[in-house]
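Proteins fold reproducibly. Take a sample protein:
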Amino acid sequence: MKIGLIGTGNMGTILLEALITGGAVSPSDFIVTNRTKSKADRLKHKYRDITVESSADEVIRQSDIIFICVKPLDIISLTKEKAELFSREKCLVSITSPIQVPWLEEMVDASCARIIPSITNRAHAGVSLFTFGDSCKYHWKDKLWEMFSKVSVPFEIHEDIIRVSSDIVSCGPAFISFLTRSLIEAAATETKIDEGTATMLAENMLIGLGELLKQKHFTLPALQEKVCVKGGITGEGIAVMEQEKGEMFEKLFRATHKKFADEAFHIQNKFSS
């Protein structure tokens, strides 16, 4: 079975590397292309057995499953232009949240799905969010679920919570990285610790926290309660955080949902035109 990948930007590359290193797809089964071909050629240097094509047409023709990893507006243009190439026996997969699967189904005869990966999939961890089209054939559902089970925890998601789920799963690592970097910078500014040492300590703390949760020693509330001894130093820190955070996360979700709604509006207009 041949797996096509159109677009080798950040997420396209992470997706390919995760599926290869996780043993879900052999390099020789990947056929890829990118608007700037040199970016796809760089992957060829790393995984010699992948096939790099100069056009999306060739990738679609030769592939059974086609992952489209380009910008949301470009997905509509590409799918419309290449609609006749997405024949009934193929499976088209978008990896971006604003593109609704029914829109894809209206444009092509292929089975359609949306899978939103996370950068954590590169470490064969985290969640991947699934939405299947009504006409997606069962063997494609099973195949995609099997593939992503090797690099993530696949989770089928309803359209009405796709944005918030993506905020947590896909954007979450960037949000947590920002908070951790802020902790590191404040530590280096307010105390005698140097930034390199603080970074090492923080990174290994995150790794340890992940292992505690993975091994189910604690839930998040139980972990906080365990560390935050009443009247202790951690409690003083938590009190500051509770006071200072205000509506930060509420505002975060409002901002991401507004951006999502704006993008979806423009994409739907382009889809309808």
